[in-house]
Amino acid sequence: MTERLPSDPGAAPSPQPSHERTTNGVGPHPEPWPDDPRLDPELLAEGDSRNVVDRFRYWSMEAIVAELDTRRHAFDVAIENWQHDLNIGSIVRSANAFLAGTVHIIGRRRWNKRGAMVTDRYQHVRYHPDVAAFLEAMRAERRPVVAIDNTDGAERIETAAIPERCVFLFGQEGPGLTDEAVAGADAHLEITQYGSTRSINASAAAAIVMHSWIVQHAAD
Questions:
Q1: How far is the C-alpha of 76 from the C-alpha of 138, rounded, in Å?
Q2: Is residue 196 in some structural domain?
Q3: What separation in angstroms does the CA of 95 have from each of 115, 119, 179, 189, 212?
Q4: Is residue 125 scored above 50 in pLDDT?
Q5: What is the pTM of this model?
Q6: CA 25 to chain CA centroid, nearest Å
């Protein structure tokens, strides 16, 4: 078990994570092996073909999560999951790429992990049975909820001042956020579109929003 973040009670790496092996990686480490407690003896002996950046080659999963926990960003991501949305895995992957604090899944606990590309092993995931429970938990932590949907009353994210500490709330592909989620949010933002389509893919929208936070608060 990895250490839980004090600001995220109940958060933990995803249970039953997706398959770890990829087609990229490195072979066995030349001997003598480095004297580093973060390194995994099995990976040193057999090679490391995981979906991790080179910096983390041969590190144990626990060591990687512990290091990421020292520098996670102040934003979280939440997704409503009522229809087993296939986008959730991709959203988790983007959350890992932009180093979100926690991914909150509202509704069904089961979700398709294929799109996560193994990043669910390194990303804290927290479950809430319904919108009401999620909103109550965020209020208890004094974490503003920012609903993301291109519906009436939304402010353009391109010109909005995004809170540094917040949780971005996304809805299902197609129907978008539930009325309860929008009504309970502290802010409501949308991504400006210029073509004929009504909306963009949910996982693409999530990646844009997370990067918008990076531009305002972490870009250097």
A1: 10
A2: yes
A3: 12, 9, 24, 18, 13
A4: yes
A5: 0.87
A6: 23
How far apart are the C-alpha atoms of 40 and 58, rounded to whole Å?
6
Q: How far apart are CA 83 and CA 151, in angstroms?
A: 21
Q: Give strand ranges (E) for 108-172.
A: 124-128, 145-148, 155-156, 166-170
CA dihedral 114, 119, 120, 122 (to 10 degrees): 170
DSSP string, 29-68: PPSSPP--TTB-HHHHHH-EEES--GGGTTB-HHHHHHHH
Q: What is the dihedral of CA 104, 12, 136, 191, to 10 degrees?
A: -20
What is the DSSP code (8-state) at residue 172?
Answer: B
Which residue range forms the structural domain that includes residue 32?
A: 21-69
Question: Which one of 51, 69, 87 terminates a domain?
Answer: 69
Q: Are 44 and 33 in contact (CB under 8 A)?
A: yes
Residues with Cβ within 8 Å of residue 24, at least 6 apart in sequence: 49, 51
The CA distance from 99 to 67, in Å, is 11
Same domain (yes/no): 65, 158: no
Confidence tier at 152 by pLDDT (50, 70, 90): confident
Residue whose token pair is 């072979």: 27
Cross-strand bridge partners of residue 155: 189
